[in-house]
Amino acid sequence: MRGSSHLAIGLITGVAIAGLVPGIPFSPAGIALAGFSSLAPDLDHPGSRLSKRLGFAQNYVRWAFMVGAAVLAAYTHFLLPPGPDRRMGFTAALAFGLIGAAMQGDATRKLALLFTGLCTVVAGLYTEYVWLSMLGCFVAVAPYTSHRTWTHTLWAAALWTYIGHLANQSLGWHGVALFAGGGYLSHLLADTLTKAGVKYFMPLWDVSVKIPLIRTGSKSGNFLEVAICAGYGLLVLGLVVGRMGF
């Protein structure tokens, strides 16, 4: 299913949680969190919306390696005396340059997300927020997994929900776990409607669970996605309005 459809379903799920779950205040931030969480499973996909947003530095990573190689080569040439250290410096500069030159597309994206995730881990350690460090680990590791493997399992959904639970405890923001977990699970349920399905219990049960209604990218598939989003939205709207007593 397309990222825009996942985002719409995640936001609608956030509205459902905010409007229908007793004790959960209606929160635009919570709804936004559900939308964000609905995109998280596709961090393993090179074309996903969240990968592109979180890997904001990916267009600059390649040039950073090239510039680093040039700086290291200049330092080695002008400041190091002839000998083993100088040879090592030029070798390292050459290695950095070759890595930068070889980086294309997905490799750059993965490295940028790794950098983003590690920065988040460090921020979590500095602020003593365990949930933030766990979030950083998720962002750093997910791009290096195959699409629709471990990020599309119940174990990953449980981990994401637990991160929300820890954030709830740290920040005192009631409902974080529900918004996070609901948004994440909405993605898995939506992908269940595609022909590829979802391996919920991988690696214990390496079988895709699916109701193959949608062929992602096809005209009929796009139409069905819009219809599902519209129907789901109308259903949630009706339930929320009914609960409010209008």
UniProtKB/TrEMBL annotation:
The keyword Hydrolase applies. Keywords: Hydrolase, Membrane, Transmembrane, Transmembrane helix. The chain crosses the membrane at residues 60-80, 87-105, 111-141, 223-242. It holds the Pfam family YdjM. InterPro entries: YdjM-like. GO terms for molecular function: hydrolase activity. This is Metal-dependent hydrolase.
